[in-house]
Predict the 3D structure of the following.
Amino acid sequence: MIREEELTAVGKLLKTHALKGEMNMLLDIDPEYIEENNPVVLDVDGIYVPFYAESIRPKGNFSYLVKFEGISSEIEAKKFVNKTVYALRDRLKEFMLDNYDEEYALYDDLIGWTIEDTELGEIGKVAEIDTNTENELFIVETPDGNRIFIPLTEDFIVEMNEDEKKILMQLPSGLIDLN
């Protein structure tokens, strides 16, 4: 049985397309993950169920037409409209590491890590990561409960300590004061 903590959201099914069960899907990851016969997971009546793509083709920059095995009509596909698409976290991480050689391929893994500046010391903990804009941001919750935004760029990262779940950064002078 698949548990929620094993998943990470990677997209959303928007609407059906044509009559044979194809659906329009927004996808935040490389579609090659799905093309390599990795499952996506959908919530079906409170149970997480893996689905494999029979076909996937681009419709735009982040939009794809996907047909899942076992779904062969518009009526069956309509059950999945507006559903979040998940990937198995470990499998996606393995795919990302194999294909992009990034040590920390999934940003979700950094949530809860401590951000420390070389001059200012501890800033706070990563509450979330904003990837909605071209410049990705750490959203950091400070000890006094405020939220500050720090650009997620390798230029500022000095060291990442996985054992201590700590990111040492060298931030430009005054950046924290902008928040």
Notes: The chain has two domains: 4-100, 107-178. The longest helix spans residues 89-100. The radius of gyration is 19 Å. Helices lie at 32-35, 74-78, 89-100.
